[in-house]
Amino acid sequence: MSGQLILVGTPIGHLSDLSPRALEALQNCDLIAAEDTRVTLKLLNHFGIRKPLISYFEHNKLMRGEELLQKLQQGCRMVLVSDAGMPAISDPGQDLVARCHQAGVPVTVIPGPCAAVAALALSGMPAGRFTFEGFLSVNKGSRREHLEALRGETRTMIFYEAPHKLKTTLKDLYAAFGDRPVALVRELTKIYEECVNTTLAQAVRLTEEKEPRGEYVLIVGGAEPAAPEETTLDTAVERARTLRAGGMSASAAARQAAADTGWPRGEIYKRMLEE
Ligand code: SAM
Question: How far is the CA of 31 from the centre of ligand 1 (A)?
Answer without folding.
Answer: 24
